[in-house]
Write a structure and sequence with these properties.
The protein is an alpha/beta fold and 342 residues long.
């Protein structure tokens, strides 16, 4: 009887542990239990490090730049964080099991979801690039609504965050798309946190605010539309190219950190540039995404959008670690992104 009770107790403790591990990121305040002073924890939070994961993923030299945190304190903080967050090796079996549980957010089009093998993946960066009027912003608006759907309907059961650099966000579009999915329009709007970015530094600062909001409540999606628009105007000419690419790389690194810490799906849109060379005379101008190799390497999945006939759009998988190159046709209507009506 006693052994049975012991087993039961072990099972309940294990269940509690499982529940705790599934909960998500640890708030930075948990470092106090590991012997870090509350004053130092407050300094970390003020610097934008709201979770223990955030502290563990930050380079040592960045922690040293936080005012009032000495060399010895940094060592102690890093040691405490690495005890709470697993930073070592794990087996591919374990990783495979974790990846089986990754949530995919539906795009609103069955054909597009088929090409993406379920939808937009959470915990990674998806880049949408294409000319103006190729459907980038409309797809972002649709995702803002679908991420709020229950998981059995292809949603993420979380809120959406929208950083708008181009001034193209329209709440009335969300209401139209919410009607299609049978969601309450007022609730859908309430669940979308919106910020307008005015320059590249402001755009980067908004990510610090985003991190503190994500600690408080569950977000499923983070959209930056467009990630590169402000870089084209804030930095000009070849003389500032190196500074621009460095700034962009840091911004994209911060986005990846949010995806790693909070498991949100990060969707960024990117503008294109026309390649005007000899081939353009015969085949018309070829378009390529801006941001160069920095942008190409930072994004996990790269999707190219282009215009088809009338309201039809074509999405092509350009690069992905697990998706084959393929194309899907979808349509943009008042209800957002839908399947083509042949």
């Amino acid at each position: 009887m006693t052994t049975m009770e012991q087993r039961r107790n072990q099972n309940t403790v294990q269940q509690q542990d499982d529940e705790e591990t599934q909960h998500g990121p640890f708030p930075v305040e948990q470092l106090q239990a590991a012997g870090i002073a509350s004053v130092d924890v407050k300094k970390l939070r003020d610097a934008g490090l709201c979770t223990v994961e955030g502290v563990a993923y930050t380079p040592r030299k960045d922690l040293l730049q936080i005012k009032g945190i000495s060399d010895a304190k940094v060592d102690k903080i890093v040691e405490a964080a690495s005890k709470l967050v697993p930073l070592g090796f794990t087996s591919a079996t374990q990783l495979h099991a974790q990846r089986q549980e990754i949530i995919q957010i539906t795009s609103g089009s069955r054909e597009l979801d088929k090409v993406l093998e379920g939808g937009i993946e959470t915990g990674s960066i998806t880049e949408l690039y294409g000319e103006f009027r190729s459907g980038k912003t409309q797809l972002c608006h649709t995702l803002c609504v679908t991420c709020q759907l229950p998981m059995d309907q292809g949603g993420g059961e979380g809120k959406a965050m929208y950083i708008d650099a181009e001034g193209t966000f329209r709440p009335q579009r969300l209401l139209q798309i919410a009607d299609r999915f049978g969601l309450n329009g007022a609730d859908v709007l309430e669940n979308v946190a919106y910020a307008r970015a005015y320059n590249t530094d402001h755009q980067s600062r908004l990510l610090l605010e985003a991190a503190s909001m994500m600690v408080e409540t569950r977000f499923a999606l983070m959209i930056v539309d467009s990630a590169t628009a402000l870089y084209r105007t804030d930095f000009s000419g070849r003389g500032e190219l190196s500074a621009r690419q460095m700034h962009l790389a840091k911004f994209l690194r911060s986005l990846q950190k949010l995806a790693d810490e909070f498991g949100v799906a990060v969707v960024i849109t990117n503008q294109v540039v026309a390649q005007v060379d000899g081939s353009a005379l015969f085949a018309g101008p070829q378009f390529k995404p801006i941001g160069g190799n920095i942008m190409a390497h930072a994004t996990t999945t790269r999707l190219a959008l282009r215009k088809g006939r009338a309201e039809e759009r074509i999405c092509k998988v350009i690069s992905s670690p697990c998706l084959p190159e393929a194309e899907a046709r979808f349509q943009i209507s008042t209800e957002g992104v839908t399947d083509c009506k042949d």
